[in-house]
């Protein structure tokens, strides 16, 4: 780790410990997930002051311009609190949207959408997933349609699991502009202010995780007008842009969740080291040592796979294979880490006395979000067969 | 399964489907866990009418007098709803307390405490566990003390994780009447109405599970007077009675949780059978079939180990080895079942759209409650070494 | 366990300890697997003398007539030595063939084939499996054909993984007498003395396991004549008879392998109890206790599932679901048991110093033989979907 | 990977495919493990000719001077054949001994012992491990003693699991020169020609793995004279030197075994891609895809952890934590890879028809050799507690 990244990581960690963790517990389970935008604005103001806001954003927009490798330790340090990524403006989906817009937005869009997003003035959402049998693990099932109208497009469709949609300033909506359902091209991305006519928040899906500001929402889009200047990039180029966003977004998820799981592990080790047991401490018992060691191993392997993928991304590769493997391993390994942390802490591991149970609850869906492990395994296996099967 | 148990099981299942499951979802996450006593009274009245209330209680008190083997399918059918055991009055800790009182209570105690408990007129709690380093995995660490006073005893101590304590009619309090902390004898059980002076509910521990009526509570006992007629059984016999309660209580937990996990599995199989995927259904995909098959195997093995232990208990054995193995396996296997069910259901498996996520949340603590898996493994291993190690 | 089965089990165990285990080590790795027929005849003579030969065979043929439930502990006791089942004449495939012939053979066949088989005068093989893409996990792929000729049939085909074929007195050959490859009927069973013209032993497959007398062989059948009196049961009834054989044969495999795994576990526990470590013994270390406890749990669950299936078989059910679940669980659990036993024994667990490594090596293929776990899971899942998927 | 390492890796792979793999199968199970020194000399001559011999050795001795990071892909390519490391002279223990001698040997020892070792003129062994309760997982239990005599030392002791001892040109013997059994210092390394009086090969331990030339041997050392010029490095510095050898030796084991496991995986993928199943190929079945994907993930995580540790070693760190985690993960992950490969190949996976079963057999002991996983977990946990437990 270069010196300045190390220093930035340390400062991030200290900032999270001092300012963010205290807000973490008190807001758990709020009706308005993750404390709401008031808390977000308060924490982001502190992060701005500390020079920590939007470290991944382009420097000309006020970010620190960190590449993927350099993001990893910083994002992990932020992820130790469930609200840390929100405080630093590196939360999903904003973080991925910043990445996407930085690559694709026109200079005008850059000013209207990206700059205020980097500054924390509004939030965003990425509206791709649809209720079954629409776009999901297979994006080509995209059914939302945009048709030409005077000076722009009219979008109709139904979206679900749209993270952060409630309260977002704008949505990036993926809609089909050509081809048929099942085609792997013909999609376009549209920038849509959330208060535009025809955008309707149907409901919060009501997931077990509750730390994402704006929740995971179901949206109905009814004849939503999008002027030509709000088409993001080229018409029919949406699937290609989604790939640009995909790999890095997978990996920053891993970074953040590694931080959360590492914190659960730390809490559990501290608990075990302090807890008397059988004339010594719990941490001296063999079965507890096994839980602790397995957590260390899972965290180390997660980070090692993550860094491999980040190096590939920084080198300009799409790194689909590397990010798919790293995501799949990480989602399962971090879930195990949190589960073992719970087990180590006994009753305190399944109650509010420690943050461990909460972290476990938040982590579980990561084995499903961003592609269920089974879908990743399917594509990993197919790659292996293509590479090895005919030699 | 004998015919009448089969029929009773079917009726229980139908009753739960018709009357209990509808209440299940709507009360999740209530401040007052498990819907509260109003709901309990309403459901128990329906169960009484259906002839299903307290099937394990002695027949002279209005129960059906089911042994352990016969309880298994009935309790499992009830457990399919998180509120089913409450509706049938076979919930922990009442179920175990009924079992205990039927064996130990005087005829006077039988009328004052047991009969109304069987009838659902009040609830009870079993106050043994204490905050560390008190009684827990090692009951001999019991620190709550009872000292002689005129006509009875004065009890002082601190209890935690006391299930159902909030709103219970009475507590069975385990207190040390002789010996020192660390001794494996010298404990006595006391029957204590919850409104007795000196009984103070400190807090709900705030566990992740929320389906136990009366929650899991921390209690302070300060100079609580217990008259001699409310000593349960003999003085200094408490640890022996706790053993009477222990094995069956472990197994009825397994029965109920098997029902919950089986329901999660059923929901997941139905979901997978209905969900289109890759030109067929999700249930036709190999990785989904593996999840389904592993659930079938885990459920079958859980039931097989459970029935082995129940046969041993019905034959009069204490069955410590069998119940320890069955509990440890079941707690882990049922947790896996619920986790796989979540994975099968994708986004719906981590949201309120299906009951699967809720069941998974409720099941997790069972690997810690009633003895963490690690403590059970420790005793299982020691038994194996005694049996095999020197031959 | 009824008294006499308990006593028979104890006698079997003592017999194996005294007479069979000494032969076990010295013959490992012989070119002629499992010591050969000289050793077999010597051990079977001792077993006959001890009244232990062929305990599962019909009483009128000199067996003890044990049902499935009663076989379980006896076969497990025999299985503690890799040669124990051979010594008692309850080895695969003879044991299953005795079971099959007792159900299907004509009285003449009974005298010519079954009686000497029960008496240990010759061995047998069951020739169903064929090289891919022939009969295997899918028996309907049967390609070996029998066509009518004067006074009998001419059989042509290719078989592989035919256990015990080298040195067998006769084969039970499954051949297609009607229908096409892929049909699930149209097969007939033929009794074929091994020295019949046209029966050719191509090779020993060379599997990692080496304790099955007669090995696992590949056979070529070229215009093998079978007279009508050697058709086993009815023409075109072969698949139905194979089902008769299947369930019990699966379960007796489990019985025998449970014995082998239990012995590995016992050896490991004894090793750990005697081995000094960290001021105590290895068996007192937490991670070792976890290995020991997990073995106890896996063995208990294997036996519990096995007994469930045996009760169903004794009650007259085909028990396809129960035997499939029990076989799948057992094959994986017993493999884990042997692996943990190896780990507990350190260097001695991967050398000839203890029988543990040898048992692990013999057990591994059981996850593939008699249907790979994946094929069983496929059928288990399909049953679950049929049962639950549409309700 | 820098270009020349990539090219060297490709050449190594081609060399192994052409020259070494053909010898691999035919020598399996030889009494003289690994084909013996005639085969070694033949293969090493070919490697010398190809410029591939001893790539890790110092350039002034004719090696290529590869650091740890650069060794990884080359050693993995060699490890694809069980005899590949022998052919390239990068087998344990010679490889580690070359590393050790290059750091510690005097210039005279360098000429007499190291140069011919690099050239493949003789082999070596590292004699540290002793029968229990001597030096093993706890090196401080060292009981072999060296006492001063005229012009040198007399060594007495008992060693076991000494890899390659049979036929080795010389041994590096670890003996206690001061302190008591249990002390973590006071050891010295001695260079001992194998034909020196008093060196006695007691037996081959008879492990399940059979690909290490010279086997794993038990040695008796009786008044073995070592002249002063054959003391390796300083007196009483042996434990420190052992640490120098330890980390790199752990990692080169991982490199070689990764190659073996990767080959088993490749064979299995090819088998699955070619095998018809259910109207498609086995490789298209979901459960097979899961096995394939899990292998890809385990291999990727193994390599990622390995490279992390190698970077740390190349940077001059002792990297005890990194190498311990990487070794523990790798030993278990590679064992899983080989096991899944076996399962994918069905009957061919447990026979000699494919090299998969053989590779699985060779890999199993790696979870025990070089520190059993349990001992590594113990030290990993203790490190975690020291780092986290008191903060």
TrEMBL record, chains A, B, C, D:
Cofactor(s) required for function per UniProt: FAD
PROSITE patterns: ACYL_COA_DH_2
Pfam families, per the entry: Acyl-CoA_dh_1, Acyl-CoA_dh_M, Acyl-CoA_dh_N
Family that this chain belongs to: Belongs to the acyl-CoA dehydrogenase family.
InterPro entries found in the cross-reference section: Acyl-CoA_dehydrogenase, Acyl-CoA_DH_CS, Acyl-CoA_Oxase/DH_mid-dom, Acyl-CoA_Oxase/DH_mid-dom_sf, AcylCo_DH-like_C, AcylCo_DH/oxidase_C, AcylCoA_DH/ox_N, AcylCoA_DH/ox_N_sf
Subunit: Homodimer.
Protein name as annotated: Acyl-CoA dehydrogenase family protein
Coiled coil: none
Domain Acyl-CoA oxidase/dehydrogenase middle residues, every copy: 125-206
Location of the Acyl-CoA dehydrogenase/oxidase N-terminal domain: 6-121
Keywords: FAD, Flavoprotein, Oxidoreductase
All residue ranges annotated as the Acyl-CoA dehydrogenase/oxidase C-terminal domain in the record: 236-384
Organism, as annotated: Nocardioides imazamoxiresistens
